[in-house]
Amino acid sequence: MWLYLVVLVVLYYLLRWYRERQVVSHLEDKFVFITGCDSGFGNLLARQLDQRGLRVLAACLTEQGAEQLRNQTSDRLQTVILDITQTENVTATTNWVKERVGDRGLWGLVNNAGICTPTAPNEWLTKQDFVKVLDVNLLGVIDVTLSLLSLVRKARGRVVNVSSVLGRVSLSPAGYCISKYGVEAFSDSLRRELSYFGVKVAMIEPGYFVTNMTQDEGFIGYLQALWNWASPELKELYGENFPADFLKTLSLLKPRWTQNLSLVTDCMEHALTACHPRTRYSAGWDAKFIYLPMSYLPSFLVDLIVYCYYPQPAKAL
Ligand SMILES: NC(=O)c1ccc[n+]([C@@H]2O[C@H](COP(=O)([O-])OP(=O)(O)OC[C@H]3O[C@@H](n4cnc5c(N)ncnc54)[C@H](OP(=O)(O)O)[C@@H]3O)[C@@H](O)[C@H]2O)c1
């Protein structure tokens, strides 16, 4: 009985491995548009796909980021400046893409741009603090997708949305997890809708990686500013040491964060180039072995784990 089971499992993985190795043809004719290419995963993916021979249309937030990327890549790669929170900018960029891809359509759209601050206890924040994150990570993704969708449909291409393990299990307060849960929900419904037109939608769910986004400076600056604005009541409830304890928790976790960004960009590349891409890609050992299993635990167990590492307010009961 056990032997049959083992054989079945091995057969399943062999079959999956064989299926996933098949690559789409004529990659050199395919256009891929990526947001947030100034740094991190977007930057590495742009360089990686350029080396693979695809035609990369890289959207950067700054001219400096765009220039640096152009200096590191071939003439095939083209850049555009895009702030995904500005609808007029998104519309103009869509026209720019249309001019380049012509009748071929857009093979790949990678919604990668994102931010993660402000991060602090929910009660310290204003509605505007949530809007800031949701505007980039969720509404920006939706706006860019809706704007470029007809071009992707024309090519029967791929939409690759960068979510996070924090879109599967809510481990931190503020807007980030909410935005990534939203990306997951958006991608799920989009995948079903677009399957009728031969378009595939994949989600990338990285664990924690060392990029610009996860640098201490961003967290420290915001936390300090929010603490300065906090009401006397909140300051008394949380205590003067809370911001420092919050950062200490981050610095304890940080040595375990992954440095090898290609674990994420390899998943993105697979989603764009494989004949049979996965629906979800967990990237990083922590995503696979900690956060994803954690997302299936009962809520009280997840709460217990979070209580273990999250700092307590000074006046906790
Ligand atoms: N790092 C992680 O641990 C981790 C884990 C899970 C998921 N992710 C997700 O991975 C994606 C990429 O993040 P990353 O880690 O590579 O961080 P990153 O290096 O900060 O990259 C984010 C990129 O988005 C750009 N960006 C920010 N706001 C934008 C806007 N309004 N319009 C257009 N572009 C904008 C940034 O430009 P500037 O550099 O000029 O600000 C930057 O190029 C994000 O969606 C993030 O949520 C990251």
Describe what you observe in this structure:
- This protein has 12 helices and 7 strands.
- By secondary structure, the chain is α/β, with parallel strands linked by helices.
- The protein has a single domain, classed as 3-Layer(aba) Sandwich (Rossmann fold), CATH 3.40.50.
- The chain has a 7-stranded parallel β-sheet, with helices on both faces.
Q: Write down the Rg.
A: 21 Å
Rounded average pLDDT: 94
Within the largest sheet, what's the order of strands?
A: 3-2-1-4-5-6-7
Sum up the overall morphology in one term: globular
Beta-strand fraction estimate: 5-15%
What is the number of domains?
1
Determine the CATH superfamily: NAD(P)-binding Rossmann-like Domain
Oligomer: single chain
- Count every beta strand, where a strand is a DSSP E run of 2 or more residues: 7
SSE succession: HEHEHEHEHEHEHHHHEHH
State the end-to-end distance.
53 Å
Under CATH, the topology is which? Rossmann fold
CATH architectural arrangement:
3-Layer(aba) Sandwich
Q: Biggest sheet, open or closed, and with what strands and sense? A: 7 strands, parallel
Bound molecules: NADP nicotinamide-adenine-dinucleotide phosphate
Give me the secondary-structure category: alpha/beta
- Return residue spans where pLDDT drops below 50 for at least 5 consecutive residues: none
